[in-house]
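Onboarding guide, step 5: your first structure request.
Type a short instruction followed by the sequence, for example:

Predict the 3D structure of this protein.
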Amino acid sequence: MERTRRHAVPTRRGNANDRLGGVLLLLVGLSPLPLGSNRPAFWAAWGVVLGVIGLVYFLSLRARGSALRISPWRLPEVTILFIVLLLFVVVQVLPLGGLGYSPIQVLPRGLQLSASSISLDPATTSLTLLQFACYGLLALLFRQVGYRNSRADRVLNAIFVIIVAYGLLGIVLQGQLGALLGIPGSGSIATGPFVNRNSYATYLTFGLAIGVALAIGQLEQGESRRKRHRRVATLALIGAGLFVIGAALVATQSRMGFVAGLVGALSVTLLALAGRRLGTGIWLGILAVLLLGTIGMLALNGGGLLERVGSLETAGDVRVDLYRQVWQMIVSSPLVGYGGGTFEGTFPLFHQLPVSPDVVWNKAHSTYFALWAEFGLIFGTLPLIIVVAAAIRLLAARPSGPRLAAIGVIVVAAVHSSVDFSLEIEAVAFVFVAIVFLAIGAGIGAAEQRRDHA
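The system replies with structure tokens like these:
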């Protein structure tokens, strides 16, 4: 009887986390549908939904007399930096002019702008604060879901299936299956439900990294004749999913998305190779499959992508000119920036030839530059340090499928964010946070279980 009472609370808490995992999967799965959730109305809507989910979850824990499996302070390096970032965004919104302090923003050609707050658009910065708070809550909740390794594996598989489904949707909408299904295509470029090719490509490359990690996990399982047929069938399903993702990725014609996908898949493979849990022949086979798959995808539907590679030099010149002017914007307010989310409204003050005036430059086309322009060099670097801290914790954890997938996803995001803004799209950010902190939760849970059985 005493043992039953001792295990009652953890069991009920585990059931609550099972239900939480299902609800969060629904949120992550639906978020790409409304244009990748790239509109303020969707930010507010998902904020309300996520807030309700968190409130119900915390109240249910309180009613059961149980606590969080993983406290925010189990990751002090992440939690402290995140709180500092949130506080700074709050400061950007405050009407400091009413307190006797008037922030002076330096503009090109010696102009100065005296504003009542650090942010040139406090309303937009308030929405950015809401987004950041959502990401923090999502990270906390996915850590609870990932605590049990079996549940983390199930959730990771479900995220892979979701991304495969959106890959198939992109192929259908693009028109590759139009002749067979009678569905009119949207053109030669696949964007899926997203607003642009690059955001969709980043979303797909996350799935590519997950799929490679899942496949390696299946190969690393011990030899068992009874389970061999099931493992082969699972590998075949993963391979089919990777084929769909690869076909959709090539159809986006995203140059850097394609490169980031290859780098992410290769990083997962090399990280697993460092563990040397498979024979050399199997690793050579994996690398050969990746190479042949890449060549096959390009041969099948890579004409548009290869044509865009040919225009890389011209596009590079345009980006260099853009980045030069964005850097001017950064150094004009290097300490506090111009306010979260204000790039679209502030950059026109710096925009000049040779950057084309015929294009609306509402994004910096580099998440790193965007962070520094909006939050300054110090506070704009905090999100990068948080991701690095998460990566270090993952690298220190024991090998697992979620760990491999999360590191691959971080590599993909780091590479593609250097020249694009995919992580500024909320649906992409949701799945990024979900995978990374699911894996961190799994690592903490595995470590505690080993300690309990020691």
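Each response can be followed by summary notes, for example: Confidence is low (pLDDT under 50) at residues 1-8, 178-185.
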